[in-house]
């Protein structure tokens, strides 16, 4: 049984079809990359899986449980965590306190604040924020806020983790460190769906890559095959002017 199965999932915003009959299967242990030009429907798909918005039609099943009608908190307790493209930490709390909060509210919560803070410290070491654990969240840079988003999601002890552009704004060296870190997270048994515009990162990290374009799934396969897919190349060239061409 797949960990996640989406069947013909569709989301309309008025007349705009943001997600168009997407079928998607994610098996336990996989790292699946989700790519596509701006506005392709990637974040919307994550919002549907996590219950932020209801699908207009279609089915979503996680580990045998249908997600229809479940609120985001209930879906998180089933074992699905996500990061947000725009981080929204508790700005008046420390970095470590921010991570302790989900540890206290997940399905099998930490026994108390002390234990939650201890766990939070270990998770912050994993994501590279250990030295900044006592900083106020408001003092973090944008890349560090993305690491904090990841740490908060890990504190839920998810089985499936959906990452929405956690590498945006990182230097190439930081991207390499992030890839290594996500591989360690996956090796701990956490299945990953990774939305990323840094194609080098998503192609190097993912076992399989899914491409959305205008809400439709236009490719699904090993990275080496997907990068050579004519439909994928056309989708990208149609949205980004190729280097060295004018007009
Ligand atoms: N709440 C909403 N109301 C109306 N339209 C929306 C809403 N959310 C998203 N859209 C539209 O749905 C389409 C898909 O948006 P979405 O944010 O899912 O794309 P994306 O692939 O995540 O893009 P990006 O790479 O820029 O983050 C876009 O046309 C967007 O403007
Ligand atoms: Mg998005």
TrEMBL record:
Pfam families in UniProt: ABC_tran, BCA_ABC_TP_C
Protein name: ABC transporter ATP-binding protein
SMART domains xrefs: AAA (SM00382)
Keyword Transport: yes
Ranges that cross the membrane: none
Keywords from the named record: ATP-binding, Nucleotide-binding, Transport
Record-annotated ABC transporter domain positions: 4-239
GO molecular function: ATP binding; ATP hydrolysis activity; L-isoleucine transmembrane transporter activity; L-phenylalanine transmembrane transporter activity; L-valine transmembrane transporter activity
GO biological process: D-alanine transmembrane transport; L-alanine transport; L-isoleucine import across plasma membrane; L-valine import across plasma membrane
InterPro entries (alphabetical): AAA+_ATPase, ABC_AA/LPS_Transport, ABC_transporter-like_ATP-bd, BCA_ABC_TP_C, P-loop_NTPase
One Gene Ontology CC term in the entry: plasma membrane
């Amino acid at each position: 049984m797949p960990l996640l199965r989406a069947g013909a999932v569709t989301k309309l915003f008025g007349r705009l079809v943001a997600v168009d009959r997407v079928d998607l299967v994610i098996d336990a242990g996989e790292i699946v990359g989700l790519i596509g030009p701006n506005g392709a429907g990637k974040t919307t798909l994550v919002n549907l899986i996590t219950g932020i918005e209801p699908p207009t039609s279609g089915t979503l099943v996680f580990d045998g449980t249908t997600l229809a009608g479940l609120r985001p908190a209930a879906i998180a307790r089933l074992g699905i965590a996500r990061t947000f493209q725009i981080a929204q930490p508790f700005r008046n709390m420390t970095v470590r306190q921010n991570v302790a909060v989900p540890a206290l509210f997940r399905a099998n919560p930490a026994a108390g604040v002390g234990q939650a803070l201890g766990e939070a410290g270990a998770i912050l070491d994993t994501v590279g924020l250990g030295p900044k654990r006592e900083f106020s969240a408001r003092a973090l840079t944008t890349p560090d806020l993305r690491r904090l988003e990841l740490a908060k999601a890990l504190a839920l002890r998810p089985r499936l983790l959906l990452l929405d552009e956690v590498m945006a704004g990182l230097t190439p060296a930081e991207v390499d460190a992030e890839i290594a870190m996500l591989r360690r997270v996956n090796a701990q048994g956490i299945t990953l769906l990774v939305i990323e515009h840094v194609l080098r990162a998503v192609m190097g990290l993912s076992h399989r890559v899914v491409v959305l374009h205008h809400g439709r799934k236009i490719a699904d396969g090993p990275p080496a095959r997907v990068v050579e897919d004519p439909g994928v190349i056309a989708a990208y060239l149609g949205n980004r002017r190729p280097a060295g061409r004018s007009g």
